[in-house]
Amino acid sequence: MPTTPPLNRLFFKLLIGFWLCSSLTIALVLMLPMLLQSHDRAPLEARLQQALHQVVEDIQQSPDILTSDKLYQLQRQYSKRDRPLRIYLTNDDGQVINSRKVPRSLRQFLLMAEDAKQPISHQFRNELVFGPLSFSVNQQTYQVYGRVPASHPRPWFLYFSENKLLTATIAILFSGLLCGLLAWHLSKPLNSLKHCANALAKGDLSHRADKTTISRNDEIGQLAQAFNSMADSIEAMMLNQQRLMGDISHELRTPLTRLKLSLALARKKGQDTTELSRIEYEATQLDDLIGELLTLSRVTLNASEVRIYTELNETLSQVLDDAEFEAEQQHKQLHIDIDEHLAFEHYPKPLCRAIENVLRNAIRYANKHVNISAKIKNKQVVIDIKDDGKGIDEKELSAIFRPFYRPDDARDRISGGWGLGLAITQAAIQAHNGDIKALNNKPNGLHIKLNIPI
């Protein structure tokens, strides 16, 4: 497998991604105050300086304004001119003495201009505030400030200085976007691999990682390639195993047929002994085992089967009739609840064999009652088969679908068969891209659930 170039390694992608996110966030935090600083204390234009000097000159010519009701008329005096200009006077304590209502913008500007050596200006959202210009009257020091409507839009970044919450929100969203893109870049192929692994675990050996994931030039791409190689090997081994099982079963049938023929000839000659009967019994058992192995191999390889669209009741008609008869012979009841018009594409023979195996097991081990139901739920055909028997140990629920597995010694070959029935059922359901699971009923009994996508 080719070596990943250094810059495409997952380590460097993570490093560069988080480094870039942190660097851009820090750059914004550092640059914003620098941008604001150049606008916080902009030099005062000549016309505004002239306006402040005119106010100071008027007050110094008529100092009684500061000690009479005319002080509150000072704003209106200058506001009536061509350009509305509002004047504010503060004393040594920084208190505005000519207005009972102090605008928020002026309060902010007073804090901003506390240590100003000369008049400055600052543009707020819709207005320009400027000052202070100091002057003295009767040995008292005053400062004069002005406020006029803004003549042009202010720079966009100044909005952030007045809205700290907005600034923090944008910074969080920006960093979240970068981290989200990085997380998506990494999680998307990993989720794809997870789905492939789950499909493989459920028996779909044909599932592979997609081409987009394989073409990545990093460790995830290498992982996808390794996963596909592993899946190819597993699929090849499983197919070879099933073919080998089928080939061996076919080869065993030839000498078995000769053995049965020899038994028939011996009996025809009158050589009917206990030993010959025993040989015939064992030969029959071996023939049944080979038949089961061939069925398992055929269902697993999905050979010579075509999906057809038909109703489930029609497919299972003979199986259900046989199961009802078998239950009656054992003095047990089979309850059937299958939707009348439940139809979907399926393999009739494998599905019949799958349901038959589970039903016969349920009838064999039930005390009195067996239930089978089928319905469509969440775009799946859900088939439930329940009995009221003893159930099995929780630790063995997932193992009962393995070939030749029997839950306990009591279920020997005579009572429990060869241990291939549920393995055939699982193979048949997996051929439909479905899944099967075993659960214990409460208070007792076994519940087999089959899910087949439609």
Automatic annotation (TrEMBL):
It is an enzyme of class 2 (transferase). It catalyses: ATP + protein L-histidine = ADP + protein N-phospho-L-histidine. SUPFAM superfamilies: ATPase domain of HSP90 chaperone/DNA topoisomerase II/histidine kinase (SSF55874), HAMP domain-like (SSF158472), Homodimeric domain of signal transducing histidine kinase (SSF47384). It is found in: Cell membrane. Residues 247-454 form the Histidine kinase domain. InterPro entries: CpxA_peri, CpxA_peri_sf, HAMP_dom, HATPase_C_sf, HATPase_dom, His_kinase_dom, HisK_dim/P_dom, HisK_dim/P_sf. It holds the Pfam family HAMP. Gene3D superfamilies: 1.10.287.130, 6.10.340.10, Histidine kinase-like ATPase, C-terminal domain (3.30.565.10), Two-component sensor protein CpxA, periplasmic domain (3.30.450.210). The keyword Magnesium does not apply. Keywords: ATP-binding, Cell membrane, Kinase, Membrane, Nucleotide-binding, Phosphoprotein, Transferase, Transmembrane, Transmembrane helix, Two-component regulatory system. Its main location: membrane. This is histidine kinase. It comes from Shewanella holmiensis.
